[in-house]
Amino acid sequence: MLEVAARLVRTEGVGTLTLARLAAASGVTKPIAYQHFGTREGLLCALYQRLSQHHEAAATDALANRLHGGLSAQAVADIVATAFIDCIVDNGDDYAAIVAALLASPNGAAASHALRQSAIAAYGRVLEAHLKPGGHSPVLVSDVLMGAGERLADAVRRGNVSQESAAAVLAAMLTPLLQGVAGD
Length: 184
Known about the structure:
By secondary structure, this protein is mainly α. It is built from 8 helices and no strands. Helix 4 runs antiparallel to helix 5, helix 4 (about 40-65) packs parallel to helix 6 and helix 6 (about 110-130) packs across helix 7.
């Protein structure tokens, strides 16, 4: 049902997303949708988590696919920054609409904050093995990555900078905080 919900957000906008609409589009009954998500806010939270997991998986997979043979700090930063910018650009409008809808819901500010903290922690886990020993905490670096990355991706979507340039700027910010990875 989350895949259907994501498609509905992309094609019809988050404003039309209700549990009843999701049930109809998914070919299930309304009680099943309500049982699964509870409320529209629950559905929005699940969509946010889905996008966050997609981001984390993209960065983790990109790093894992390149680790054999060793990577410099610059290469690690390039991989993480590119994966992050690509995900935000690909999902940015949907992500922004989901966050806005969450914030408009009764418990949305608290839910949005909790979900963001979870996403920051997830990216912290991705970065942890690559941070310089004794350096900044993974959560702090992840928080900075997300904030800067989101603004850079917004600039890409507005046409103010290329996707490659945005990733390069984000990588330049990350590189001094990272260490290289030895080859296998």
